[in-house]
Design goal:
It is a single chain. It contains four helices and no strands. By secondary structure, the protein is mostly helical. The chain has one domain. It is elongated, with a radius of gyration of 14 Å.
Length: about 70
Amino acid sequence: MIIEILLVPVGLYLFCGFVFAIAFIVKGVSVIDEGAHGGSIGFRIIIIPGTMVFWPLLLKKWLRAKKQQHD
């Protein structure tokens, strides 16, 4: 019971992270880091786990970078 209470939010967090990671590796990574522009598919696959864990921070950074591009 206690394990379920802990694992459900963690699973939901990682699921949201995976959904975010798909969009991020397609568009966001090159917006945040110019060095990643034109990065290989291998590089993009390798960053998926880290993106899933740190997705709230990366989302914030991505939105900030998009806002600066429009200013």
